Amino acid sequence: MSFEIPDTQWAQVVEKIGGPPVYKQIPVRKPGPDEVLVKMKYTGVCHTDLHAMNGDWPLEVKKNLVGGHEGAGIVVAKGSLAHGIEIGDHAGIKWLNGSCLQCEFCETSDEPLCLEAQLSGYTVDGTFQQYTIGKAAHVLKLSKEIPLDAVAPILCAGITVYKGLKESGVRPGQTVAIVGAGGGLGSLGTQYAKAMGLRVVAIDGGEEKKAMCEQLGAEVYVDFTKSTDLVADVKAATPGGLGAHAVLLLAVSEKPFQQAVEYARSRGTIIAIGLPANAFLKAPVFETVVKMVTIRGSYVGNRQDGVEAVEFFERGLINAPFKTVPLQELPEVFELMKQGKIAGRYVLEIPE
Asked: May I ask which residue range the UniProt record assigns to the signal sequence (predicted)?
């Protein structure tokens, strides 16, 4: 099988910190020996893409960056050392674009922690373009039965929250509070939690997000814009009023990171996933100690986490709420994201 590959392609390029992205033509790269070239069909838009454009994090961003890291498409070319995936296969490009595969972290299945990790849409060009390069060892081979638009958000948002739930150690029948439950990560987190036998308390703001969270299976919705005592409301929603066994912090503002210990139950675990710019995670020492609360960070999943997260989706247990718009409308999606007006996920359709 062979594909005709053009010399140039359409892409959304961040030419300066703060953006906006510029829709323009750029060259199509050829894959290296251990790489594949994926013709993008769809790509999700993650809040990380906005952080990358704005240069919010203490990590150097590639100049003239093509963002995006939730891309699904078809392999159209591969290098001579690209094993395990073939031309014509469907594949996903994730946040982790590549790693060294030989350091201690890579060899113990913690490849996201590799010091030489390449990050799609941040340190290397990502999926907001027609053709994207990925390391063959890290692209996720997808069944051709899986719809590429619907699976796109799973490739970052889904894997990230699934990994966070695993890291929390929460068990079936226990309660998890999800902060930012109405967003792209939260909408998937609720579903993974339900599929894992957990009870969900959703925390977010607004009636649209309330309707979505309840539809996805949250037992209780706590609206932070209306609550006069958020901590009391969350605790009241948990069995015995003792608080949540686990808290997933997906928020893009700092305040929720300061409150979580107050409504986590004794021996509860707080998982920090969201990355608000210039924020600090603070907790009252007394409560943290006497309640024996665990606070830990959770980054993106490893390669096996990606396989498992997609398997949940393939089995029909996960249905990512999304809206589809053309790649050209990425700036408008970013504006909605800045205003906190997105329920679920936006997926960009890539032009042929």
From this structure: none
